[in-house]
Structures are given as structure tokens and as C-alpha cells.
């Protein structure tokens, strides 16, 4: 982290785009469909879909929302 880290990150991305290094083999940035497949989904109606314990929310594309974490932590702490 430095004084101009956001600007530097932006300029690096612009440079990669200008040089054609985004989404190509050997490039620095992968296209989204290679990270999470388009067919990866969670059917919340299916009984085998994992759900969070405290909020009972299903995973979205196999990942839980970070907003669930504080409630899960607070639910595991005994009150009293």
C-alpha cells in the first residue's frame, strides 16, 4: 500500500489492455468464466445444498457471502 496504489493498479490494468494481455494464455488476468464456470450454481431448493448455520443462507456459485461471517461468528459465541 502506497500513496498512489489505486492509480498504479488502474494504470497496470490499462497497460495490460493496451498490450492485449487480458484473457489470453500467458496473460496476467483470466477471463471470469475460467475462474468460476458458467454452469457452477447452487440450487437452493435442493436438499443437499449446504447452508450457513446461523442465517440459513445457501452458497452462491459455491461461495458464501462475506456478510454472513459476522453473524456466524456471533452465533458460535455463548451468551452469558
Plain-language structure description:
This protein is an all-alpha fold and 80 residues long. Helix content is 35%, strand content 0%. It is built from 3 helices and no strands. The chain is elongated and about 50 Å long.
Set out the fold topology:
Blueprint: H1 5-19, H2 32-35, H3 68-76
The number of distinct β-strands equals: 0
Strand content: under 5%
Instruction: Characterize the quaternary organization of these chains.
Output: single chain
The helix fraction, in percent, is 25-40%
Write down the domain tally: 2
Q: Average the pLDDT over all residues and give the rounded result.
A: 75
Biggest β-sheet strands, sense, barrel: none
**How far apart are the termini?**
41 Å
Shape: elongated
The radius of gyration computed from the alpha-carbon positions, rounded to a whole number of angstroms, is: 19 Å
**Number of helical regions:** 3
Structural class: mainly alpha
Instruction: Give the topology string: H per helix, E per strand.
Output: HHH
- Uncertain runs: none
